[in-house]
TrEMBL record, chains A, B:
Name this protein carries in UniProt: NADP-dependent oxidoreductase
Record keywords, A-Z: Oxidoreductase
Entry-linked PANTHER family: PROSTAGLANDIN REDUCTASE, PROSTAGLANDIN REDUCTASE 1
Source organism of this protein record: Leisingera caerulea (Phaeobacter caeruleus)
Record-linked Pfam families: ADH_N_2, ADH_zinc_N
InterPro entries, sorted: ADH-like_C, ADH_N_2, ER, GroES-like_sf, MDR_fam, NAD(P)-bd_dom_sf
Domain Enoyl reductase (ER) per the UniProt entry, residue ranges: 18-336
Lineage, top ranks: Bacteria, Pseudomonadati, Pseudomonadota, Alphaproteobacteria, Rhodobacterales
Amino acid sequence: MPDQMQRIVLASRPEGQASEENFRLESVDMPQPEEGEVLVRVHYMSLDPYMRGRMNAGKSYADPVEIGETMTAGGVGEVIASNSPDFQPGDFALGAFGWASHACAQGSDIRKLDPDMAPLTTALGVLGMPGFTAWHGLDAYGRPQAGETLVVAAATGPVGSMVGQLAKQKGLRVVGIAGGADKCKLAVETFGFDACLDHRAYASAEGLKEALAAECPDGIDIYYENVGGKVLEAVLPLMNNFGRIPVCGMIAWYNSAETDLTAPAIWRSVLTKFLSVNGFIIFNHYDRYGDFLGEVGPGIASGDIKYLEDIAEGLENAPRTFLSMMQGGNTGKQIVKLV
Amino acid sequence: MPDQMQRIVLASRPEGQASEENFRLESVDMPQPEEGEVLVRVHYMSLDPYMRGRMNAGKSYADPVEIGETMTAGGVGEVIASNSPDFQPGDFALGAFGWASHACAQGSDIRKLDPDMAPLTTALGVLGMPGFTAWHGLDAYGRPQAGETLVVAAATGPVGSMVGQLAKQKGLRVVGIAGGADKCKLAVETFGFDACLDHRAYASAEGLKEALAAECPDGIDIYYENVGGKVLEAVLPLMNNFGRIPVCGMIAWYNSAETDLTAPAIWRSVLTKFLSVNGFIIFNHYDRYGDFLGEVGPGIASGDIKYLEDIAEGLENAPRTFLSMMQGGNTGKQIVKLV
């Protein structure tokens, strides 16, 4: 076992757009597992948009990462030393290991993975937090009904692609929004969306709205919100009465809050269209994780539910990969392979 | 029977603030009831903030009043001629009679009132649309739990005063917001609010927020939204996780959309605090009207639930009274007595 491990810490807080200077790669002493803990070597770490929020000062739904602290991330690790009765060296586990080559964690805080059941990377994507987010938000707050129309952005991402496929299974018309013609093609051909619009092709929310209106002749019943910004502005006027908006993210507004959309316009839509808007993060709903696996797992095993992964290599490339992902540079669930 | 009736029509659409010039009093021929219709003489008409929305062009949740058309209003009328088997002259009925001395209506579109059961005016207020709005919004979207904290503005109005009393009955801490020291005193002494803040005493949302924070030491679980504007801006930062916001109006933004609150700030609160926001108008929920009367009626009959009415006189004074009400000039449910 090496006596040093590598980690990436928050070097400084971004002002507006985040940059590589906000991160720093460090070598530190290899930690020793305490009573009840395991030491893992991280094989795969997850990169997710929520991490941008943790880089800001001030509490969002979670405490910020402090300057000099390891960046937060979920990961899949191999146990290499164990003081927990529940784990042996060679076991694989899912946990909050951070942007790091190794980590110690309480056995009770991590979940054992069976590499023969599904590829290990799926624990970070389609069978993990993003897939579960898609399923719970659609089911609990979207309340989809056959014949309705759903719109979701980041349509080839791990949340959007799952939302779209689940809604199609339930008999909805599904219109995606994505960045670039290639992603739009993927959304339709791989994920079965009825249509997908390239938001980069529309300079204004008004143009995007007109294109959406053409693809949603019966209006929009569910807008699964993960981006905010121009897309929200285009969608709101097209929402039907009694529409539902599950809100799991607003990536367009993470770096900047510039927008033409006003607060009264949002409130007016909520009131006059009798909308139901629900913010949520999946971390509060793990009591339903078993239901999710039971419902979605078979479709993934059979191949009926498709998923895409975008796997970068090397911890040192995590900051660049993360920043690129925040601009839509990835295609599918962004993962970093460390081993 | 006179051969002329009086009505107030929309003379022009307001630009920003509405004014008396937007209305016109007219005399027209007395209408004759068709088959199935009754002719009523209106005794009381209701003035409500939603009417401001009907004065604008463009569909809100209802079609606008057209130029030259009678302004919309609920009213209590005495049947003076009937071609409906369900009504006889002398009966009293609740219906959408408009800003008018007389009106014809289908018997099936109006509801018979028993003047011995409750004062006729209560059909427009505490036992009518505003009281029902308060009850349904709190019950269905507020989901109140004992020990929680609720905030509602226009605290002495027909909606706010009912929301506050119902929430007190359920064991919540209830903090009102109202315009002026007299109304705040009424909210506490007559309606039993735990506290009430005078929004006029705070130039900025920040000042109001600090005062609210002091009165809501455990944060805010339910914000019953009927005003928008500065109050919403002050409340949002104080909302607790999993808070609920039933939205039944936004009177502060009816005349103008000026605000310091931004769209991303609203969305960020919804997301990071896991809020549930529901827009509604009571016209969609009359299937629950019987439940409302069954639950709230006894408290009104016994005097446990208080209510205030502000009764102006004369159809010709309706525009002035309406405009004053939109600025908070009324105390309690605004009604105009015509007979």
